[in-house]
Amino acid sequence: MKSDAATARADFAAALKDAAIAALIALGVTLPLVGFRTDQGPDYKLILTTRFDLVAVMVALVFAARLALTLWTGHRPHAAGSSAVLERLKPAGSALFRLAGPALLGLALVLPFLPVTGRYELDLGILILTYIMLGWGLNIVVGLAGLLDLGYVAFYAVGAYSFAIISTQVIPATLPALGPWAFWICLPIAGLLAAFWGIVLGFPVLRLRGDYLAIVTLAFGEIIRIVLLNWQDFSGGPNGIASIPRPTFFGLPFTPGKDGFAATFGLHFDPTHRIVFLYYVILMLALITAFVSTRLRRLPIGRAWEALREDEIACRSLGINTTNTKLTAFALGAMFGGFAGSFFATRQGFISPESFNFMESAMILAIVVLGGAGSLLGVVISAIAMVGGVEMLRNLEFLKSVFGPNFDPTQYRMLIFGLVMVLIMIWRPRGLIATRRPSIALKEKKTISSDLIQEGHG
Amino acid sequence: MTDTLTSAPLAAPALREPLLAVRGVETFYGKIQALKGVDLDVNEGEIVTLIGANGAGKSTLMMTIFGQPRARAGAIRFGGLDITKLATHDIAALRIAQSPEGRRIFPRMTVFENLQMGAAVDGYVHFDDDLERMFALFPRLKERLHQRGGTLSGGEQQMLAIARALMSRPRLLLLDEPSLGLAPLIVKQIFEVIDELNRSEGLTVFLVEQNAYHALRLAHRGYVMVNGTITMAGTGRELLERPEVKAAYLEGGRK
């Protein structure tokens, strides 16, 4: 035990030394480049200003990051073999991951009732859940079936516009009595329409893979957006569609009136009731998506998706109809995108083509890839990090004291976003949660150790 | 072109149609002709081997039977049915199974899941029984059942590829170079399993091999392919004795 502690101490000392060297190099680079700054003075003379405080911050950052990196990855500068630090982290890490799913679900269920949760937190929760649902939907296409889809936002748009057009035009014109139920009727229709468009996209791209598939799906996403932008009569063009009906509590509107949700249940009217309800709707939709995709993974169709991702030719030789397999993946992924789109439309009350640009597709794809394609928990973690992280950047006011009052952290959003992407792809090229779980596994007791087989106890 | 050695017709029960009949098949890769009119029969219950040098078109014939690439001329009949123009998955549904060149197992899926994929054609009806059969044939797979396919050794991957093909309860098993890159002992094991399956269950096997000595000793009949055409045909023993075969494929006439 003593020697363990000793090696750990030696490791730490080595890591400190390594970090100090890195900091020294950083000092050498930043001092001339950042530390001194010249500005043109009033009489065309250069004025030298020093910014040693900034240099100090950067060097400290390098030191801390290098130290963290060395300790985390166990790449000790002067010794080989496995690191004591890493060994200690390992079991804790796996336990953490095992508990993460149920813990996050529990948190999601009680979030609206936590004392710290206000309107802002609820809205953020809804936003994150929307992206989690989109991520899980796209995960079927990208993570399971291995079809790189850069135009997923198209299905989100189809869902949103289907919902908006049916609820604002079709239902009032044909069956106005259905008004309060609009959300619950339009939701499945929007999902089915999105699935239909998933198949429409699927057919021409059946023979494509990888880069070529990505380009065509990217184009498809843009086509949908541009059609919506230019087909004024149908979609309202750039003006979008406004006054989309709000969801009702199974027919009871969230209004202060006598027929409202609050009056019926004898509660005081509170505008957050609607937000809480929306929160649970998207939570439910997201859980349905997760449930369906985990279920399907265990069925032949899900296994066929995964096999298709691995080897298409082998799949065909085993009698798998790859056409149908791909189309079902596209259709199901699109359907969940459509559901999320309906939800988006009813939450916002207003939609326009601007909400469905390529950035959205990129964001959803980034969530899936960073999370580890195929992993549901990975999608959750990366959605929280990406959506919540961007929101957090708004709150980093203290950075102004470091970088000056003109520093606007949100402007660096994309830079940080890109940096995080690059770093994750370097350290975890297969995403945060890269290990694929077998769709079926025997319990611990039943696994057969190789020793037993050789002795004939099989 | 075909130089038939035996005076009697090759197909022993001449009245019955062979299980697999390849007639005048020509296959192209773009403008390059890989198969120049191949004729070949596999009868029910036989092990038939196709030997030849690199690039002779052996694997192309194997893949053409499966419809990828498709034959540009000629016909392929299986069990009396013309399968030349069928989709690959429909051909597989007729219970032709394949252990393809390079094994093509699913590397990120477990051994168990790989075997499940094999049973897709059979509709998973006999899955549990067949799994036990595979464990009996290849005990190594039982040990590795929940390991990812990609982590298996080459020999184990080959066993998995064959077992996966057998899970579909095939009427015809196509094996493309099962000995490729494997230690002689493993090759011997695999060939013993094929022989055993043929004897006990009457499994029909079409074996493409470069390892001519082992393949011809195992097979009832063999064909030799050179540059996309069949140049010789005969029983395994006859071909082993042919000086041309000895010179070209048996490293100075090893017996």
Largest interface: A-B, 28 and 34 residues
Query: Based on DSSP secondary structure assignment, what is the total number of beta strands of chain B?
Result: 11
| Count of the separate structural domains of chain A | 2
State the CATH superfamily name of one domain in chain B: P-loop containing nucleotide triphosphate hydrolases
- Beta-strand fraction estimate of chain B: 25-35%
Quickly list its features.
heterodimer; A: mainly alpha; ABC transporter involved in vitamin B12 uptake, BtuC; 2 domains; two-stranded antiparallel sheet; globular; disordered C terminus; B: 255 residues; Rossmann fold; seven-stranded mixed sheet; four-stranded antiparallel sheet; 11 strands; disordered N terminus; LivHM_N (chain A); transmembrane helix (chain A); transmembrane (chain A); ABC_transp_permease (chain A); branched-chain amino acid transmembrane transporter activity (chain A)
Summarize the structure.
The complex is a heterodimer of chains A (458) and B (255). Chain A is mainly α and 458 residues long.
